[in-house]
Design goal:
The two termini are 22 Å apart. 0% of the residues lie in helices and 28% in strands. It is globular, with a radius of gyration of 11 Å. It is mainly beta. Strand 1 and strand 2 form a beta hairpin. It contains no helices and three strands. It has a three-stranded antiparallel sheet with strand order 2-1-3, with no helix packed on it.
Length: 47
């Protein structure tokens, strides 16, 4: 059985774009590829 890392999904509150990463926070310099806002506009989606 392989060890699976926890995945975290973040949703842009401006345009709804979702990104899934294996860290509990987005990088400081993360920018939404759809609408261009910074990570402050993303919320963690509870799975």
């Amino acid at each position: 059985m392989a060890d699976e890392k926890k995945q975290y999904t973040f949703r842009c509150t401006v345009c709804g774009y979702e990104v899934t990463i294996d860290e509990p926070e987005l990088p400081e310099d993360f920018v939404c590829p759809v609408c261009g806002v910074g990570r402050d506009f993303f919320e963690l989606v509870e799975n």
